[in-house]
Amino acid sequence: RAKSTGHNMYFVYENNMAENIDAHLTLGGGLRKAIEEEQFVLHYQPKIRLCDEEVVGAEALIRWVHPELGMISPDQFIPLAEESGLILPLGEWVIRRACRQLKEWRESGVAPIKMSVNLSSRQFMQADLVDMVERVLQETGVEPEYFELELTESMLMADAQQSIDKLHGFRKLGLTLSIDDFGTGYSSLAYLKKFPIQTLKIDRSFINDLGLDSDNDAIVKATIAMAKSLNLKVIAEGVETRSQFDLLDGYGCQEVQGYLFSKPLCGEDFLRYMSSQNVVTFA
Ligand code: C2E
Ligand code: MG
Ligand code: MG
Ligand code: MG
């Protein structure tokens, strides 16, 4: 970078802006074709039960394997897919792929675990979403109790009454519902009680600061206590260190997910990870 005179700063800014706009157009334009050609993969991050450190679940996380740009993270293209409406076919692909993967793992003989899939706002607003999920579960032969949807507070709060109805629709199918990134949105405690959800997933930002900021720790501790008294399961995302793990353990958190255990893995690596972790011991 050139010296940061006011003039140069201006150009640096403009260049970045142009690059961003360019990337936006390129990615957005390629998305439809990418869906047709299935240029996507799912990676799976293990969810670990705190008490015995067993793998009890997996979160499916999408990546775009772009022919020229390589691996693109969901934060870069999910918003584009939302804008264009392409999130609807893409979202259905994710659910089907994740269910098939779960079935494949089961067939290879590992202990049953739960698969979680993220939804985005536009998908959540889709009128026939519950029917679509039911259809895919039937088609792939996945029992609904092994399937979970992750939703965010803002999605649920956009139209709270309609959300409650939709969540009840999912509950009738027998699957479980989780609030993702909990603590970053604006859902009120009054609504938390009304939403038929089973799991709270504490946002990574709170976990990141654990042990570094006593106010933050107090929030995490209180969130876990509140979840427990509402009979919700609590999971912490973004757990990277043993000391974060130990604090969460002390607060009564039930599950963790994060780099301390594993990054998101491709299907094959996940299977290897599971086989190496869930060691069968004989008494
Ligand atoms: P999320 O659902 O909150 O997923 C957690 C993100 O944190 C993932 O990023 C994961 O790789 C990352 N992560 C996990 N453990 C750690 C850790 O210990 N440290 C750090 N620094 N990061 C960690 P990823 O895969 O890039 O996904 C980003 C977001 O994109 C997701 O956030 C989710 O909102 C969205 N997303 C991913 N896949 C899908 C999908 O299939 N459909 C929809 N609608 N959204 C998706
Ligand atoms: Mg998630
Ligand atoms: Mg999250
Ligand atoms: Mg997140």
Kindly describe this structure.
The protein is of the alpha/beta class. The protein has twelve helices and nine strands. It has helices spanning 6-36, 74-84, 87-107, 121-125, 129-140, 153-158, 160-173, 189-194, 204-208, 214-229, 242-251, 267-277, and strands at 40-49, 55-66, 70-72, 114-118, 147-152, 176-182, 199-202, 233-237, 255-257. Strands 1-2-4-5-6-7-8-9 form an eight-stranded mixed β-barrel, surrounded by four helices. Helix 3 (87-107) packs parallel to helix 5 (129-140). The radius of gyration is 20 Å and the shape is globular. Mean pLDDT is 89; it is low at 1-14 and 279-283. Residues 45, 61-62, 73-75, 78, 94, 118-120, 150, 180-181, 204, 237-240, 258-259, 264 line the site of ligand C2E.
Q: Concise description?
A:
With 283 residues, this protein is of the alpha/beta class. 52% of the residues lie in helices and 19% in strands.
How does the SSE layout of this entry go?
Layout: H1 6-36, E1 40-49, E2 55-66, E3 70-72, H2 74-84, H3 87-107, E4 114-118, H4 121-125, H5 129-140, E5 147-152, H6 153-158, H7 160-173, E6 176-182, H8 189-194, E7 199-202, H9 204-208, H10 214-229, E8 233-237, H11 242-251, E9 255-257, H12 267-277
Parallel strand pairs: 2-4, 4-5, 5-6, 6-7, 7-8, 8-9
Antiparallel strand pairs: 1-2, 1-9, 2-3
Helix pairs in contact: 1-2, 3-5
Bound molecules: ligand C2E and magnesium ion (MG) (3 copies).
